[in-house]
Each structure stands twice: as structure tokens, then as C-alpha cells.
Amino acid sequence: MKHLIGSNLWTSSVFSRVLRAFSYSAQTLSPTISPSNATDSLQVRIFRNGDPKASVVPILQQWLEEGKPIKHSVLPSLIRQLRSFRRFKHALEVSEWMSEEMNYDSIADIAVRLDLISKVRGIDQAEKYFDSVPDTMRTFQVYGALLYCYAHNKCLEKAEDTMQNMRELGFPINTISYNVMLNLYSQLGKYEKLDVLMQEMKEKGIKHDSFTNNIRLNAYASSSDIEGMEKFLTKLENDVEISIEWHAYVVAANAYLKARFTEKALQMLNRAEQLVTHKARRHAYEVFLTMYTTIGRKDEVYRIWNLYGNLGKCFNSGYLCMISSLIKLNDFDGAEKILAEWESGYSVYDARIQNVMISAYCKSGSIEKAEAYTNGLIERGVIKEPDAFTWNSLATGYQIDGQMAKAVETLKKAILTSMSGWKPSTGTLAACLEFLKRENNIEAAEELLQLLRVRGHFSSDVYDRLVMNIGERNLDASVLDRIEGDNETLDEESTRTQEVKYDGSSELYV
Asked: Is 473 left (phi over 0), alpha (psi -120 to 50) or beta?
């Protein structure tokens, strides 16, 4: 694999839906126009830059050097679109360039930037940025963004303190803020606090919205309280002031699936499909694809995909969901056909779509296919080199294939190209450390761990413990679970993006 592997072992990767509610509606770009035919614009140039490590600032500067103006109104829209593709690093670069080069910072821009800093550089840097914001600019929107950052990072005490500060400052504590806290309590399993907070909302005359109800339904589902969920759902159905949306029945279907009541889950999905509005079809169909995949109904998956195709546009998120669904259903031929369809007509490159296929090849033991496909991307100029997710998948593939020297080398490349929020496969990492220990190459094992520590993927405490374990020839793999970052694989991510969950962010407050 000449493009990827060198000869030396150590030679050189429903918050998003709702977060748009209070500011603007993000448009997901259609992949139906060939890149070669796309109109030259700043937006197109930036989205053609598929390398997550490459800065987009030179593109902005070159645009100006060509004598082309950049209207301020264009940049927030560009940031929204980058966020919708989870290209947070590029979105932050545009946001900071807008502040430094155009000397423009609105309250909305500050709130969005705070959220992006949290995602790209971590909550500590987000706190430092918040502290640097002048008091006159620390409005409800900015505090709301900070509240979301703490909730997103599951910092319960800090989130509760921020909520209290907002009360004391006289800011309007509305449904959105309550939903952020309700979702946090639900994620942390503190279900007893949900009813208390919802009662407080009632006493203060703050109306529950569909997200409030879905969070409560999700909590019932997560705690396997089917009886409580059914009673709450019946209460909603009998309340003439509440218009139940399709999301509620999807949440109920998830609960029934967890309890292995497949027929009831199918009934809930049927009800949900009947309630989908014209505007919600795209997102709803992506959710249904995931649900029917979980049930194992490939016929229903293809039926929904055909409905999706009738929308006139097929979006990157839809392709990601469909390909991932077919992989889970072991329909690799179908997944490859959908991938080829996307490759022939996308207008906005999305590395996740190809990475999910590479990951599937590697996990299924087809490392040769993964290598050939990745090399093809490089040869066609789609990417300059693999990102951390691709390297990580390839490392897993080599591990499964028994090529441990290559697995170690490739995992190191994944770490070197990683960014904040990325996390290696703990199984592959453990296997690599065990291999190096068997080879009596403790120095190389420690170097691998040191790289992970320097890149911020785990603390010095975890590093010291692992180094001690390796030195004593007694690797405790459970310590690896404390590695900091996003533990989702790409196929899990594609599923997560389709789940009906409350997702709040800075943009809720602007």
C-alpha cells in the first residue's frame, strides 16, 4: 500500500437540529451537482477543501487578493453550513477570521464562537474565551451558549451554577434553558430531577414544548419504564392543547425496541410516518432508515430510501444514513452502489460518508478493499492523505488481519493527525500495546501513550498508570476507557445524527 504505509515502524484523523431554532434555518447542501459544474463561490471553494487538517483561512485571503469582496452576511451562513457538516474546526477558523480581519463581533457571533471553541479546543478554552468577553457583551445569548457548553460536556455543577447566575442576573429563563438542563439530567440518569424541573416550569407559566416532552419520553425509555412512558404518551394524546409530532412516536418506538416489543415499535413507527409534515420529511426519513435498520427490516429501509429520493434532492446526511444502514444489514453490495451514486454527484464533500465504508471494510476483515479504496481517494485527488478516522479504521483492519506491526504504525499516524474530540479505538490500542509488550518494545509503547497524552486524549494520571502497567508487564485495559474524546465509531455517529434527541447550542440563544 505505497500511499499509506512506510517502511519504518514509526513514520508518519436531536442537538444539531434544534440549535438553529432561535436564529436561522441551516440549509444542508444538496449533493446533486457535480463539483466540476458548481458555480465558483467562496462557499464552494471552502467546501471543496475536504482535508479537515488544512486551514480554510488561505482560501478567505486568496478570495480577497483576487479583488472579490466578502460581505459580512455571507460568513455566518457559511459557519452554519460548516457546523451542519460537523466541520467545527473550519467553522471556528471562519468565525475567528471574521472577528480579527473584519473586526466584526455581534452577540450572535460571540455565542456561536463560544460553542465552537468548546467543541474544537475544549471546555477550558471556552471558559477562557467567555472570561475575555466584555461584561456589556455577556448577554442572555452568551450565557445561554455557556450553559449549553457545560451541558454538552456533562459539567453538571457548572451548568447548574450558570443557570442560577442567569436567574440572578434577571435573564429570561425560558423553555430553551430548561430543556438544556432537562436533557443534561436525563443524560446523567438523574431522572428524579426531571419532574421537579418540569413542575417548576408549570408553576412559572413556562410552557412545555415538543422537545420538553420528548426529553421526558426519552428518559422513560432510557430507564426502561415502559408503563411510565405509556401513561405520559396517553396524557399527551388526551391534552387538546398539545399537538403531538412524529418525534414522540419515534421515541416510543425506541423504548419498545429496547424492551424487545418489536410489533409495538412497528406500530409506533407507522403512527409517526402518518404525522410527518412536508417540511420534516427529510429528517424523518433519515430517522426511519435508522429505526427500520435496528429492527432488521431491509425491505422497509429501501422503501423509505425510495421516498427520500422522491424529495428531489438527496442530502449528504441521507447518504451517510443509508450506507450505514445497509452495512449494518450486511448488504455491502447495496452500500457500495449507494456510495457510487453519491460519489458521482455530490457538490459538498463529506469525509464521513467514505470513512464509514472504509471502517466497514476494516471491521469485516476486508483490509485489502479498505487499502485500495483509500489509495483511490488519494490518486483521484479527493483527499491529500487519510484523516485520523481513516487511519484509525485501517489500524483496526490490520489488527483484525494479524498485521500488528502495521497496526501500530497506522495507529500512530491516526494520533498524529487527530484533533480535539477524536478518540482511538480502545480495542485496537490495547491490542497494539499488548503486541509491543510481547515484543519487549516498551519504549515504543510508552511513546504511543506519550503521543496520546500530548494530543490531549487522556490525562497525565491515566498516562502514568498505563506506563506503570506496561512496565510491570500487566496492562489494565480498563484504564483505556478513561481516554478523553468521542468514543463513537463512524457508523455509530451516522446513527446518532438521525436519533430524535434534544440538541441545543449557542444558536438557540441568538
From this structure: left
pLDDT score at 28 = 34
pTM over 0.70: yes
Q: Which three cell numbers stand for residue 75?
A: 460568513
What integer pLDDT is reported at residue 456 of this predicted model? Answer: 79
**Could you count the other beta carbons within 10 Å of the beta carbon of residue 61?**
12
For residues 286-323, one letter each, b for 16 or more C-beta atoms within 10 angstroms of the residue's C-beta and e for the rest, the string is: bbbbbbbbbeebbebbbebbebbeeeeebbbbbbbbbb
Q: How far is Cα of residue 53 from the mean position of the Cα atoms in its chain?
A: 17
Better-scored residue on pLDDT, 216 or 36: 216
The model's confidence at residue 464, banded by pLDDT at 50, 70 and 90, is: confident
Rounded distance between C-alpha atoms, residue 277 and residue 245, angstroms: 9
CB count within 10 Å of CB 268 equals: 24
* Among the listed residues 183, 181, 244, the one whose alpha carbon sits nearest the alpha carbon of residue 219: 183
Query: Which of 82, 52, 120 lies closest to 385 in space, CA to CA?
Result: 52
- Asked if the model's pLDDT at residue 31 lies above 60, the reply is no
Q: Which amino acid is at 246?
A: W
The dihedral region occupied by 502, where left means phi > 0, alpha psi between -120 and 50, and beta the remainder, is: beta
| Consecutive H or E run containing 447 | helix 442-454
Q: Taking 90 as the threshold, does the pLDDT of residue 504 lie above it?
A: no
Burial class (CB in 10 A: 0-12, 13-18, 19+), 124: exposed
Q: Where are the alpha helices (DSSP H) in 85-225?
A: 88-101, 107-121, 123-132, 140-152, 156-168, 175-187, 192-203, 210-222
Residue 330 Cα distances to 109, 266, 357, angstroms = 44, 21, 12
C-alpha dist (Å) from residue 395 to 119, 406, 421, 465, 466? 25, 7, 19, 24, 20
Let me know: does 220 contact 230? Beta carbons within 8 Å: no
For residues 473 and 115, which has the higher predicted lDDT (pLDDT)?
Answer: 115
Q: Which of 193, 189, 124 is nearest to 163 (CA)?
A: 193
Cα 36 from chain centre: 29
- Give 165-213 pLDDT, tens digit per residue: 999 999 988 899 999 999 999 999 999 999 999 998 989 899 888 889 9
